[in-house]
Amino acid sequence: MTHPGGEFTLGGDLEVGRLGFGAMRITGEGVWGEPEDPASARALLRRVVEAGVNLIDTADSYGPQVSETLIAEALHPYPEDLVIATKGGFERPGPGRWAAACRPQRLKRCCEDSLRRLRLDRIDLYQLHTVDPQVPIEDSVGALAELQAEGKIRHIGVSNVSGEQLERARTIAAVVSVQNRFNLTGRGSEEVLGVCERDGLGFLPWYPLAVGKLARSGGPVDDVARTHDAAPGQVALAWLLQRSPVTLPIPGTSSIAHFEENLEAGELELSEEEIRALEAQ
Ligand SMILES: NC(=O)c1ccc[n+]([C@@H]2O[C@H](COP(=O)([O-])OP(=O)(O)OC[C@H]3O[C@@H](n4cnc5c(N)ncnc54)[C@H](OP(=O)(O)O)[C@@H]3O)[C@@H](O)[C@H]2O)c1
Fold first, then answer.
1. Region for residue 163 given its phi and psi (left: phi exceeds 0; alpha: psi -120 to 50; beta: otherwise)
2. Which of 40, 82, 83, 249 could form a disulfide with 240 if both were Cys (CB 3.0 to 4.6 A apart)?
3. pLDDT by residue (tens digit) across 205-214?
4. Atom of ligand 1 nearest to the CA of 210
5. Closest of 259, 267, 264 to residue 48, by C-alpha
6. Does pTM top 0.90 for this prediction?
7. pLDDT at position 62, please?
8. Is there a catalytic annotation at residue 62?
């Protein structure tokens, strides 16, 4: 099957469409509690899969628990090719608040809870959500490697890592993906992206739309968007897809209309000149 934005193979055996879906926005305000309309959130998830997207990014901390629970309610039993990429490593003291918590025993418990909530025997991609300053990354990734050996995780990913932390993680386990903040106006992770490209790791840029700023007119993508008769957010996503063959953008939305619009970015081809102009701003 062809997917919007083309395909990428994670860890040598898991094919995903490169344009994924970020399921953080289907929770309440501050990524806390139930969304205003859970039935609409479930309808959106069903539309995501129906439209051919087969990479959904989530985390136990989104809600907490709400995003994973909605995914299971809306989509289980899952289509065979659906890859649910979840994460563990954040505690949620309250709305908008995040605290790193990556002790090995806790991560193992969180993974078991995600398996139960998602109604899965094995999680295709389990990502260490962050690096806990109190816990060496080797210990956190070591816990994920043990879960992998027990058959509970298929592939291991990391998130919010520096180049050095990624290197250390890779001494412990085969890491197949990195999820870092990256978009047209925030390119702090160029070096890590370069490592992913060199070694064939997937790179999931979070905040691909700069929390929606790049989807609004009046920003740096307007001129190019006008040329293509496209929405600004489509240009921002097309830029990410063309930036490297390993990028797997996961735009987040609570709206079916926005989802449909974002999906069309997979068809948009930017010229070299347009890419240079976008990057020069
Ligand atoms: N690893 C990490 O630490 C980390 C951190 C943050 C996020 N993430 C992941 O990355 C995903 C993406 O990040 P994100 O959702 O925070 O940010 P984002 O994708 O950059 O932007 C999402 C925001 O943009 C708006 N939006 C989306 N499509 C739009 C469109 N076509 N037109 C106008 N507005 C649009 C959404 O509002 P509407 O709901 O109104 O569409 C939402 O407010 C998350 O869902 C999550 O899976 C990971």
1. alpha
2. 249
3. 999 999 889 8
4. 20
5. 259
6. yes
7. 98
8. yes
